[in-house]
């Protein structure tokens, strides 16, 4: 059975200022815990499978260079019979049943993927912070400015917690400022995915990005 959950967020500008503004989003998720875990697991598994290159390759006896000539005659030498030096029994020969390039992906329905993201957004509610203006006036890359802004919002970065920043539009200056920080990731709201959400210990969402998320993942059916 599904139920519409309302998440009410306070818009934080600074931990030293009172939170007077609030916003909310509505997410349609299931009350069945096992079903939620199953859907989330399937979507994450599919995303991890897509990342696999699948390019491991070995050559069979027909693909190894050489071996066209019979090493010695069939009878009379006292040796075991052999037809090619590229037999899998020989050093430098082909490989029997070795790996071949393959695709590991499998199909996930669009509604399954959206449901998994709604489940994770709901589960990560207590670790989520909403802010109105996050480095909007950033003209050039400045990593120190990013760290100070996060600390000002109450998000500690020195304890190596993974922080996910969700923005409506990823500017070049913002991307270059965060690129050097190993425990901080930035993603656009349109590209939100389950793997980024589940890895994050803290989530920072801008107000504009939250509106995009509410538009995309608010199931009105």
From TrEMBL:
<keyword id="KW-0694">RNA-binding</keyword>
<dbReference type="GO" id="GO:0019843">
    <property type="term" value="F:rRNA binding"/>
</dbReference>
<dbReference type="Pfam" id="PF00573">
    <property type="entry name" value="Ribosomal_L4"/>
</dbReference>
<keyword id="KW-0934">Plastid</keyword>
<keyword id="KW-0689">Ribosomal protein</keyword>
<comment type="function">
    <text>Probably binds the 23S rRNA.</text>
</comment>
<dbReference type="GO" id="GO:1990904">
    <property type="term" value="C:ribonucleoprotein complex"/>
</dbReference>
<keyword id="KW-0687">Ribonucleoprotein</keyword>
<dbReference type="InterPro" id="IPR023574">
    <property type="entry name" value="Ribosomal_uL4_dom_sf"/>
</dbReference>
<feature type="compositionally biased region" description="Basic residues">
    <location>
        <begin position="67"/>
        <end position="78"/>
    </location>
</feature>
<protein>
    <recommendedName>
        <fullName>Large ribosomal subunit protein uL4c</fullName>
    </recommendedName>
</protein>
<dbReference type="InterPro" id="IPR013005">
    <property type="entry name" value="Ribosomal_uL4-like"/>
</dbReference>
<feature type="region of interest" description="Disordered">
    <location>
        <begin position="50"/>
        <end position="86"/>
    </location>
</feature>
<dbReference type="GO" id="GO:0006412">
    <property type="term" value="P:translation"/>
</dbReference>
<dbReference type="InterPro" id="IPR002136">
    <property type="entry name" value="Ribosomal_uL4"/>
</dbReference>
<dbReference type="GO" id="GO:0003735">
    <property type="term" value="F:structural constituent of ribosome"/>
</dbReference>
<comment type="similarity">
    <text>Belongs to the universal ribosomal protein uL4 family.</text>
</comment>
<keyword id="KW-0699">rRNA-binding</keyword>
<feature type="compositionally biased region" description="Polar residues">
    <location>
        <begin position="50"/>
        <end position="59"/>
    </location>
</feature>
<dbReference type="GO" id="GO:0005840">
    <property type="term" value="C:ribosome"/>
</dbReference>
């Amino acid at each position: 059975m599904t139920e519409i959950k309302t998440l009410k967020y306070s818009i934080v500008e600074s931990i030293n200022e009172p939170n007077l503004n609030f916003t909310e989003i509505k997410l349609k998720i299931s009350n069945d815990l096992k079903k939620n875990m199953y859907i989330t697991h399937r979507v994450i598994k599919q995303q991890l499978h897509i990342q696999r290159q699948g390019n491991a390759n070995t050559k069979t006896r027909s693909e190894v260079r050489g071996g066209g000539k019979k090493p010695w005659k069939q009878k009379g030498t006292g040796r075991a019979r052999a037809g090619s030096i590229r037999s899998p029994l020989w050093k430098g020969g082909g490989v029997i049943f070795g790996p071949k390039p393959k695709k590991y992906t499998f199909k996930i329905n669009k509604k399954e993927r959206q449901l998994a993201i709604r489940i994770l957004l709901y589960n990560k509610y207590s670790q989520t912070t909403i802010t109105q203006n996050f480095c909007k006036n950033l003209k050039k890359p400045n990593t120190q400015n990013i760290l100070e802004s996060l600390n000002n919002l109450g998000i500690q970065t020195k304890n190596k917690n993974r922080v996910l920043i969700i923005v409506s539009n990823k500017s070049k200056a913002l991307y270059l400022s965060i690129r050097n920080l190993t425990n901080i990731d930035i993603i656009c709201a349109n590209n939100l995915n389950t793997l980024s959400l589940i890895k994050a210990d803290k989530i920072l969402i801008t107000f504009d990005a939250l509106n995009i998320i509410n538009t995309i993942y608010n199931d009105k059916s």
